User: What shape does this take?
Amino acid sequence: MLKNRQWRLVSFPSGRPETSNWELVETEAPQVAPGHLLVKALYLDVAPYMRGRISPQRNYAAGVGLGEVMVGGAIGRVLESRSAGFAPGDLVVTDFAFGWQEYALLSPRDVRRIDPDLAPLPYWLDLFGLNGLTAYFALFAAGAMKAGDTVLISAAAGSVGQISGQLAKIAGCRAIAVTSSPEKAAWCREIGYDAVVDYRAAADLHAAVAQACPQGVDVFLDNTAGRIHDAAMQNLAPGARVVVVGTASLADTFDAPDIGPRFLRQILVARATVRGFLCSDHAAGYEGGRGRLRRWYEAGRLQSKFDIARGIEGVPDAFLRLLTSRNLGKQLVKLDGD
Amino acid sequence: MLKNRQWRLVSFPSGRPETSNWELVETEAPQVAPGHLLVKALYLDVAPYMRGRISPQRNYAAGVGLGEVMVGGAIGRVLESRSAGFAPGDLVVTDFAFGWQEYALLSPRDVRRIDPDLAPLPYWLDLFGLNGLTAYFALFAAGAMKAGDTVLISAAAGSVGQISGQLAKIAGCRAIAVTSSPEKAAWCREIGYDAVVDYRAAADLHAAVAQACPQGVDVFLDNTAGRIHDAAMQNLAPGARVVVVGTASLADTFDAPDIGPRFLRQILVARATVRGFLCSDHAAGYEGGRGRLRRWYEAGRLQSKFDIARGIEGVPDAFLRLLTSRNLGKQLVKLDGD
Assistant: This one.
C-alpha cells in the first residue's frame, strides 16, 4: 500500500500559530473512487488565508476541525484516474481541495489542467491561481483602479502584492509598495513599483506614506491591517477605495478584538470606500481574468518570485515563515521525490 | 439703521462645545449689493455637521474661522431685492449661506424659493433640504437599499434618521431604529419602524441589535459612530453596506483619535462596504430626489417632527441640545417678531 503522510490540526492556536498545532500522521493513500483522481502532490500551498481557517471565529469559509487534515491547494500529478477526462501523468492544480498531504483523492470539478509549456509549475498556484485573480479583481473590480491613480499596496513583495504592483503599472497607475526589508524593497523596485516604504525602517510611517503619495492614496490594497492600515487611512485622497484583502498583521492576535484608531472621520471626509474582498465572489469572471493574466505573462509584463521550502515535514514551518514575513515572494513547499 | 445680531465663533471647543465658544454681537445689517438679496431669518438651522466646522481638523468643507459668523442655513423672507427674480416678501431657504444671524445678504444662487402652500416652513430646511436629500441618496445611492433589506438606522428619530426610516418602509425594507429614549422610540414606531433599540436602555447592545436583526444588517445608516457602530458592525449580513453619514457620538472628542475595535475582519468576512457619504457629491441628482420626496410627502407617506427653540439668543443652546440628543425631531430655532 502507498503510504500517505498528512498534517492534521490538533489544536487551535492561541495567538501566533506554532508547529505543534499540527501533527504529521502516516496513513494509507486513498483508493480511487469512481469519477475521481488519485493525485500525488508536487507543490503544496501555504497562504495567509489559512490563518482564518484554524480559528473558531466566524469566517467566510468553514474552518478546519480538530483531527482533520489541514486545508490547502496543490500542484500534482495524476497517479490513477477513474475519470474519462484525465490520464495518469496529467499535471493538475487545485486551489483548496488537496490539503497538507502527499496524496489526495480529487474530483475533476476541483482541479484545473496545467500546461507546463506556458509557465513553470509554481505559477499555477500563483499568477494563474488565486493570487493572480485576487490581485486582478481586487484592483480592477473592487478598487475600480484606473490610469493616473496612486495605488498603495501592503505586503507588496508577497504573493498577491507582487502581482498587484505589476498590474497597477500595466494600468497606468503610480504603484507604491509597503514592505518589510531591504531585500523585498529591492524586488519591489525591480518589478516596477515607483516608490517603496519599508515599514520596519520608517521612523514615522504616516509621514513616509505621505511622502511617497503626495497626492494621497486613491486605491489601497490592504493585505495586512495593523499599523500599515493606520498610515494609509490617514493619507486617503478624496474618493479613495480601500480594498480589504487580508489582515496578515493580525495573525498573532486573531481571536482578540483589533483595537486602534477607527478612521470613520477620515472615511467620511474623503468619502472613501472600505470594502471587504473575497476572490470567489468574482468566480463568474475567472475565465476572463485568467485570459488577461496569461496574455500579460506571455508578453513578459508579469512575473513572480517564489520562495520554495522542501519536504512534507516542513509545511507548518513554511506557513509560519509566511506569517512572520520571512518569505520573499510566493511561499510554496516542494515535495521530495519528484 | 437695521440692527443685526449675529453669533461669532470666538474659540474652538476642546471636547464638547460650550455656549462660550460663540459670542452674540450686535452690528448693522448689510446694505444690499447689486444682484443680491437682503433676507430676514425666520428659522435658523442647527445641525450635527456644524461640529466639524468648528474644529481645526481637516474636513470636507472649510471651517469657520475665529471671529467669523457661525455657518448655517435658514428660512427667511426677502426684505430688499436687487435681483430681478426676487421681490420683497418672497420666502426663501438656503442650506449653508445664512449663518447664525438675523439678517444676511444672499446671492440668488444660494437660495431656493419656498412654496408655503406645499408644506409648513420648517420642512424646507428638512425634508426638502439636505436632510431629505441625505436620507434619499445615502440609502438609495450609497447604500443601494432594495426591497427585503434589513436597514438599521442610528439617531433614528433625528433629522436624517426619521426620514430614513420612512424611506426604508416605502422601499419595502425592514427598518430598525436605534435611538436614545422611550419618547423617541415611540415616535419611531409611530412613523413605521419595525423595531426599535434604545441604546441607553439595552444591557447588551450587540445582542439587542442581533435580536432586532435576526438575518443580519444589510444596510447600516451610521449617523453616530461610537458604540452603536460597534454593535452594528458585529451584526453585518453578507454584502452589507455601511454608509457613514455622521459621527455624532464623537462630538465631545472630535479632535482626539477614535480608539476602539476596528472590524476589518468583520468587513472582510461579510464582504461589507463602508462608505463615507457627503450629500453634495450627489448634487447632480438633487432635482430628481426632491421630486420624489415631494411626491411621497404629498401622498402622506413622509412626515417630520420638529423641535423648535426660540430667539436668536438661544441658538448655541439649541445646537448643544442636539449634540447631547435632547432634541426630539429636527432641531430649528424660530426667530422672534415674525
Observations:
- Chain B touches chain A at residues 57-60, 222, 225, 229, 244-247, 250, 257-265, 267-278, 281 (CB under 8 Å).
- Chain B has a mean pLDDT of 95.
- The two ends of chain B are 19 Å apart (CA to CA).
- The longest strand of chain B covers residues 37-45.
